Amino acid sequence: MDTSLIVALRREARPLATAEDFDYLLECMGDASLVLLGEATHGTREFYQLRAEISRRLVVDKGFDAIAVEADWPDALRVSRYVQHSGDDMSADQALSGFKRFPQWMWRNHEIVGLVNWLREHNLHVASPARRCGFYGLDLYSLEQSIRAVIAYLEQADPQAAVRARERYGCIDHFAEDPQRYGYAASFGMKPHCEEEVLRQLVDMNRQASAHLRTGGVPDEFFYAQQNARVTRNAEVYYRAMFRGRDESWNVRDSHMAETLQALREHIGRGIGRPARIVVWAHNSHLGDARATEMGAHGQLNLGQLVRERYRPEDSFLLGFTTHAGSVTAASAWDGPAELKEVVPSRPDSVEHVLHKVGLATFLLPLRGRDSALTRVDGRLLERAIGVIYRPDTERLSHYFYADPERQFDALIHVDRSTALAPLERSALWQDGEPAETYPSGL
Predict the structure, then answer these.
(1) Residues 6+ apart with CB under 8 A from 383
(2) How confident is the model at residue 372 (pLDDT cuts 50, 70, 90)?
């Protein structure tokens, strides 16, 4: 590897350890009101710690209004009620107990407990409920919970509308526990699809939202129910798309995240009288601009790309995270237990390996508005993505893709040797010691 390249990167790199280092990072973000914080794995402790620290600084120093995460809307909303002092839960662990779906460790871990406790304490000193920082989910896997939540809200607010909603959702309700079975049956003509029914319910609620806006504003509880109707509609589309190809279902999911982020930003903004400032947590593969990756060349889009396309350049900041080696929490198969696994040292032709050669334990590499030394790399770079499943035995095929990090992100944080995220519930396969050698990859 060209030594002059490494010398140049060392000049550009900024160690990330002190308060002043984080001050510099916030300066790099400028006036961005949408700060997207990635992760190279779904199970690295340092990524969670750094994102939590950055989020705290954004809330305190820049008045950010919400944290939106790659999680289901109903589960995250329960946490939001707790941190905003409007729910019935008595502890962070109890508020997080809604996260039962695989991969449970992503949100039921010690770092999230610490962040949730901090948010609740912070909000204790915020007099206006509308200005208390919330915690929201962007994902669409909660089909059954979201159907139940829409009906439960309408039973209290409008019993006749609840009857209509129950009839509409009856088309899909008996598949809600296993929506992939619905997607299979509808895609292959084994049952009529329910697209019209779930869309009709969402249109009905959107019409009611417009009426609320004409008479003073959309109440929070109505907005939460409306969002559950949006989840139900988009989940129905997603589960049918699953059987038409990965790119199509991926695009449905990330479009839903972008739609949810926009709706959340507008709703919070109406309550506080300005565009809401939101920090987003999701995997690099969702937040790094897809147009700078080989997946984008194949037709995939993602949340980072959509944010850049829909907002002014100065409104967003995309921060990616990388690691060279260490350990990670991941499963060996979908719905499998959390395991403590060793991360194979990065490939010589990867961006992670180039950053490893810089020789710093943890550092920030600014990319926005400058010509980084990364442009001097001879040839294309691979980038690693470890999701909830890790397959070190097929790592090149399962976890690497070509990308241009300078176009993908506004900055990178590299943690050279990282450690596994500690779940609140540890399986027999998650224990300190030598990680087991294992296996697929979900992001």
Answers:
(1) 284, 293, 322, 350, 351, 352, 400, 401, 402, 403, 405, 408
(2) confident
